[in-house]
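Progress report, Aim 2. The chain analyzed during this reporting quarter is listed below.
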Amino acid sequence: MDALSHHPLNRFQQFASADPDALLARVTDLFAVRSIDFPRDEGIVDARLNHCQIDNVGLTYARYGAAMNATVEQSNYYLQGFPLHGGGDAIIDRASGTLSRERGVVGGPGARLNLRYSRDFEHLIVRIRPDGLVRKLASLIGEPIDPPLCLVADVIRSDAQFRWIEFVVGELSQAGSFVPPLLLAEMEQAIMVSYLCNSRHNYSDRLAGNPPGTAPWQVRRAEEYIADNWDKPVTIEALAAAANTSVRSLFHSFRRARGMSPMVFARRVRLARAHDMLAAPQPGTTVTSVAFDCGFGNLGAFAHYYQASYGELPSTTLRAALSNRAGNDLDRTRLPSPEK
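Predicted structure tokens for the chain:
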């Protein structure tokens, strides 16, 4: 993705310096880094950190400009790294492995990491607050988390996660872009769910197993909740509460009964609302304003989904509605023909 080719998250610059001590202070604050050193004199350090905090999830782009070793004693967050360029090695608790574009580290509170990066190393880092992640896990399995969540620190391959993180970071990196709060909340939710489903921990078997079924009325209740709250973030916790079931049971039964996930159903509801707004526009209505009001931050994606659903671009619907309105207004302003 082009948005990731030059300094992702550039709109959220946090740090740019050639001072190793200043770099250590900043990465200690963000990631509990205990020490860094530069083993070879390869020139001046050229470090850069861009960081965007959503709510429970933080996204960071980092480069260091020199070969670097780092020791991390993580105690506050769940982390996952996604290398973009360069390479390195990692020893994390009992695991070890090479770092590359396909492989990065994952670890949680209590993990100790020894990291070695090449001079050209650049990566994205996902940082998740434990309380938010635990709430998300509890909603997925439908019961309180006891015993506590215990993550297996490792070096893992994470292609699917990387593609999603790449998309989110690309959206946030676009100059002048505005990501609607509704979409931002659902992006964060997807990041946490994918983190839980793709890492190993003491609840992995619960997430992988087949959930109990959900009654048809519970699927209908979820649909009603989405229809009533289409203009708000649709969280998996709220859906499960509305349907009085666990998230996994609801998603499993929803897909079996409707052939789609609840989130795809929510997108269809929002597209229908967007069509209504474009077909009967208010003064000042634009395709961009409708897309954002309906939770679509990416205009290209909005146009794609809209055309697939209605057979025309959203601009075509709006243009036709405005043209029809102008014709009706003209008819009303014409003088009646004189009587003969």
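The first strand starts at residue 13 and ends at 17. The chain is about 45% helix and 20% strand. These observations will guide the mutagenesis work planned for the next reporting period.
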